[in-house]
Amino acid sequence: MKLYTYPNNPRAYKALIAAQYCGAEVQVPPDFKFLEDNRKPEFLRLNPFGQVPLLDLGDGKAVFESNAIARYILESSNRQDMLGGDDAVQRAQVAAFGDVALGRIDPLGRPLVYPTIFPAFFKPDKTRFEEALEQFRAVIGGFERHLTDHTFLVGERITLADITVSMSLFWFFEYLLDPELLMEYRALKRWFYTCIGQPEFVKVIGSDFKPCLKRPDHLKMATSTNADLGGHAGNQGHESSDHAAEVTEDDQTARKPKNAFDLLPKSSFNLEAAKRLYSNADNTREVMNQIWDTMFDPSGYSVWVVRYRYNHELSKTFMSANLLNGWFQRMDHLRKYLFGSMIVFGTSGEPGSCAIGGAFIVRGTGDSLPEPLTEVEDTDLYTWTKADVFGKDRDLVNDLFAWEGKFEGMGPDYDGKPVATGKNFK
Ligand SMILES: N[C@@H](CCC(=O)N[C@@H](CS)C(=O)NCC(=O)O)C(=O)O
């Protein structure tokens, strides 16, 4: 099967992610020329609308429309479970969420994010932006409502609906939904990062998704009168498309901050040696004491106890572990500066039957977390409390690194819950 598309197209990602879930072979011809080849008669015979992505099955057969393509790939590989299985209601729900993605999210790309992604083709339009943002908030508000008490969109596992909707939202997360705007959509954010952290998604989109940290200036200007969005100070003079291109470049630079960890004074603590010692330990608690007493440098590093803020939503241990996997992948670039031990507590059951907590050694000693860490999307899904490993918190921190113990002081979310699994960030 051949998938015609231009590179990095989230609509094409739907098919490629679906293929990862069922092991289907999908080739993306690298020599396909978008806006040229899709206008040729032989392409129009396969898709009369001349659009990509298009799945070419050979022998003159093809499937067009991104949701239909992903559906076909799953269906033809017997992954009916990902289409809602035998349950007619779930099948309809999978289709319904896909329809919302195509009908209500995708059309808002043009006013809301295309001027940033394709500044040469789309000029920002302030009035249209305002209107579209209202419409967008109405749609994502619906998803937020649904996801507040659902882990995934349909049923208890990833389905085609999660693929189609997350990929429709992909560019919005990348170019529009900055942390300020996302404050109101925490469940949506949690769900989106859970989806893109799944190994099948990571194989297609990579593990270094760069979220929107700062809305491009021309969009800030457009929202500067919107009290709802916090009333950004107006920026003048960014209306022309030339400026839009400039702003986009500035924004790209802003998204790659210099690493504040590297600017800190040298420390005597060899974090990598501590990680090695820990990994080879027979008695973790003993080794942690050795690390604190003979290696640790409190003038260069700090220790934090970390608690998931939304334990009341967690009902499955494997999904909780997936949250950690996704988070760790997104923090991959910070391994040199951090050493963490996170635990999934509890057993699968009702919401709140699981909890996530752990401890991290972090480069830097300030009372707030260093910026490179706060820039990782998942960081604010957790509360971070500085721990005193030379006093009252040593036992708790040692328990958290050892994945066993009394865990005294973790709080009521954790009380009486057994350790289900542990994961290290090292
Ligand atoms: N609903 C369609 C939309 C496809 C679409 O808009 N494709 C764009 C590129 S992402 C395209 O081919 N545009 C060229 C054209 O319309 O001529 C889908 O999800 O597959």
Kindly estimate the percentage of residues that lie in beta strands according to DSSP.
5-15%
Helix count equals 18
Bound molecules: glutathione
Low-pLDDT runs of 5+ residues are: 221-257
End-to-end separation: 40 Å
Radius of gyration: 24 Å
Determine the structural class based on helices, strands and strand pairing: alpha+beta
What is the count of structural domains? 3
Overall pLDDT confidence: 88
Write the CATH homologous superfamily of the largest domain.
Translation elongation factor EF1B, gamma chain, conserved domain
CATH topology of the largest domain: Alpha-Beta Plaits
Q: What is the CATH level 1 assignment of the largest domain?
A: Alpha Beta
Architecture of the largest domain in CATH? 2-Layer Sandwich
Q: What percent of residues adopt helix (DSSP H or I)?
A: 40-55%
Order of helices and strands: EHHEEHHHHHHHHHHHHHEHEEHEHE
Most strands sheet: 5 strands, antiparallel
List strands and helices in order, with pairings:
Blueprint lengths: L1 E3 L5 H13 L18 H6 L7 E5 L2 E4 L1 H11 L11 H18 L3 H4 L1 H4 L8 H23 L11 H16 L3 H4 L3 H11 L2 H7 L11 H6 L18 H14 L16 H9 L4 H12 L5 E8 L8 H14 L7 E9 L7 E10 L7 H4 L7 E6 L6 H9 L16 E7 L1
Antiparallel strand pairs: 1-2, 2-3, 4-6, 4-7, 5-6, 5-8
Helix pairs in contact: 1-3, 1-8, 1-11, 4-8, 7-10, 10-16, 15-18
Bound molecules: glutathione (GSH).
Short précis:
The chain is an alpha+beta fold. It has 18 helices and eight strands. The chain is elongated, with a radius of gyration of 24 Å.
Describe this structure in words.
InterPro entries: EF-GSTs, EF1B_G_C, EF1B_G_C_sf, Glutathione-S-Trfase_C-like, Glutathione-S-Trfase_C_sf, Glutathione_S-Trfase, Glutathione_S-Trfase_N, GST_C. By secondary structure, the chain is α+β, with helices and mostly antiparallel strands. The chain folds into three domains: 77 residues, 3-Layer(aba) Sandwich (Glutaredoxin), CATH 3.40.30; 148 residues, Glutathione S-transferase Yfyf (Class Pi), Chain A, domain 2 (Up-down Bundle); 163 residues, Alpha-Beta Plaits, CATH 3.30.70. 43% of the residues lie in helices and 12% in strands. A five-stranded antiparallel beta sheet has the order 7-4-6-5-8, sandwiched between helices. A three-stranded antiparallel beta sheet has the order 1-2-3. Bound molecules: glutathione (GSH). The site of glutathione has 10 residues, from loops. Glutathione binds next to loops.
